[in-house]
């Protein structure tokens, strides 16, 4: 096998490197900067150059190497290149080629072009390693423009009722897409410190994003009148939210496709805005690679793998330590709005 599934992560023995390892290693190729794929402790990191400032913000000073998409690097004769995954800014698929065999590790991806993350690029290969976060037919997303319009309409309704609109969205990926959705309203957007940190890292790297204002302990409560606030999941229900009263909460997550999840989260509004591929996207991505064998990682891997086998595509499940950023945020929230971790 060109890539082995080990207790440290996906390992290419011929090139002596790992892809998104979850235990410390010497050489790590990183698909993107979410915490379940990019962990602290590796001796050397290789990623897309737009991922580097995000890794720096989250992991601090390390040995980083940034490259562009489709810019080959050779490790012990193994050809490695990165290709757009469309998941978040800088997210990449990893193509590994050695002695005529090609494997592609997708990391996390979505097939709808969100306008800021780079359009997903199907990469022909012999073996494809795919996520399956939303690998069930029930998960079929509405087009992004439709969801963006729903977002703006909700804000406008809250404004007329003199309520603040608090969006719960992951600080890296979802928050940046929300800013683009809200831009036409031409209203100030206030953000939690975790969102601010990622915003600053991206803007400093040259990414064009709408301006935001950081919420600090000194920000007067009177500032928030029919205001727009973006906060990570860890802030939801915390004392930090008190100063926004009266407010409504809108949760942005693919899990909101299932109505019961909205009730369980005590959300006032739900937007099924996901940075992962839906069921049709997963199927189209797999088929576009032309892969003879497919390994399915985190998510509904059992159902998705079984369906691929039924369609005549050899598939097997693989256990990894990926997954979770749709539901959790690694930053903790305190009364003074400081955040734990690197972000």
Structural class: alpha/beta
Helix content: 10-25%
CATH topology name of the largest domain: Metallo-beta-lactamase, Chain A
- Provide the CATH superfamily of the largest domain: Ribonuclease Z/Hydroxyacylglutathione hydrolase-like
The total number of structural domains is 2
Largest sheet: 7 strands, mixed
Form type: globular
Write the element-wise H/E pattern from the N-terminal end onward. EEEEEHEEEEEEHEHEHEEEHEHEHE
Mean pLDDT: 93
Compute the number of helices.
Answer: 7
Looking across the biggest beta sheet, what order are the strands in? 7-8-9-10-11-18-19
How many whole angstroms does the radius of gyration measure? 20 Å
Second rung of CATH, namely the architecture of the largest domain: 4-Layer Sandwich
Report the CATH C-level class of the largest domain: Alpha Beta
Beta-sheet strand percentage?
A: 15-25%
Description of the molecule:
Residues 323-333 have a biased composition (Acidic residues). By secondary structure, the chain is of the alpha/beta class. The protein has 2 domains: 4-138 and 275-317, 4-Layer Sandwich (Metallo-beta-lactamase, Chain A), CATH 3.60.15.10; 144-271, 3-Layer(aba) Sandwich (Rossmann fold). Helix content is 21%, strand content 24%. The protein is built from 7 helices and 19 strands. It has helices at residues 52-59, 144-160, 174-182, 193-204, 259-264, 279-289, 301-310; strands at residues 4-5, 10-12, 17-19, 27-29, 44-48, 64-67, 73-75, 78-84, 92-98, 101-105, 127-132, 164-168, 189-191, 213-214, 228-231, 247-252, 269-271, 293-299, 314-317. The strands form 3 sheets. It has a 7-stranded mixed β-sheet with strand order 7-8-9-10-11-18-19, covered by helices on one side. A hairpin with a 4-residue loop joins β2 (10-12) and β3. The longest helix has 17 residues, at 144-160. It is globular, with a radius of gyration of 20 Å. Residues 326-343 have low confidence and may be disordered.
